[in-house]
Specification:
By secondary structure, this protein is an alpha/beta fold. Helices cover 27% and strands 31% of the residues. The protein folds into two domains: 86 residues, Beta Barrel (Elongation Factor Tu (Ef-tu), domain 3), CATH 2.40.30.10; 158 residues, Rossmann fold (3-Layer(aba) Sandwich), CATH 3.40.50.80.
Length: 275
């Protein structure tokens, strides 16, 4: 088998696919919370992806890819047996929830793929772990069976009520806490506005909160400064200081503003590559 060969590929939702990549040297050291940077070919751009699962026995790493740009579109056209040019990692710091005993994992959209390895890790440590998965509709919910097997309790919620309860992840979290659930940590991953809302709620409820920041990134080594954030009033870099931070210290307004800098160019770019 070739290094960085695509071992399996499956469609999870519209424009979202899971890839299993043969990368024995990467998987040897990777842990929940870390990420990789890949190139589809020698002329390709470097793009980061969070590790959503791995198997040391098989030598494979799984990533979730949402088709939103040039590289992800090229990835969508690659099939089992094709090989990537580069697959570098693991990068970033592994998740450390060792001080907590009862954790609620909150995933929005493809953020569910990020909380899945956390759930498996916490289950292996025999900790109490619940999970809330939210999406716009039932077709965008993913990893539900995997999460159900890895958690004590799984709660589904959709904006339109097509699966689980109708509402947002914050509605479900508030309902659980008001109903008597005791969590000493919430771990949230998803769109920036969702994480901002979760952190506002947990600050009100007095629950420690960790978020995984998927900032724009180029080199993954802290040299380019592209992924910088303001955390606790200090400049931090998602690639080397994170990707996980205390959610109550993250300046989400700044992060959201930075994420929208190239929105107009991105929209024109998508039209060009799909035209």
């Amino acid at each position: 088998m070739k290094n960085f060969e695509i071992v399996s590929k499956r469609r999870l939702a519209e424009n979202v696919s899971e890839y299993e990549i043969y990368a024995p040297y990467v998987v040897r050291h990777c842990l929940a919370g870390q990420f990789v940077i890949l190139r589809t070919d020698e002329d390709g751009e470097r793009v980061p992806f969070t590790i959503c699962d791995y198997s040391r026995e098989l030598g494979t790493v799984r990533i979730l890819v949402q088709e939103i740009g040039y590289t992800t579109l090229k990835l969508s056209r690659m099939e089992v047996g094709d090989a990537l040019a580069d697959f570098v990692g693991p990068l970033g710091n592994a998740t450390d929830l060792s001080e907590f005993k009862s954790i609620c994992l909150v995933g929005g959209g493809i953020g569910t793929a990020v909380i899945y390895p956390q759930a498996k890790q916490l289950r292996s440590e025999r900790k109490s772990v619940d999970a809330i998965i939210g999406a716009r509709n039932k077709d965008l919910l993913m990893y539900t069976e995997e999460m159900r097997a890895a958690c004590d309790n799984l709660y589904l919620i959709t904006d339109d009520g097509s699966n689980g309860k109708k509402g947002f992840v914050t509605d479900m979290l508030r309902e659980l806490v008001n109903g008597g659930k005791k969590y000493d940590c919430v771990f949230a991953v998803g769109p920036l506005p969702m994480m901002k809302a979760v952190c506002a709620l947990t600050e009100e409820l007095g629950i420690r909160t960790v978020v995984s920041m998927n900032s724009m990134m180029v080199d993954g080594t802290g040299m380019c400064g592209c992924c910088r954030l303001t955390v606790g009033g200090r400049t931090r870099y998602a690639c080397i200081d994170g990707p996980e931070f205390d959610g109550h210290e993250v300046d989400f307004d700044e992060a959201i503003s930075r994420s929208r800098i190239y929105r107009e160019q991105e929209q024109n770019h998508v039209c060009s590559i799909r035209g």
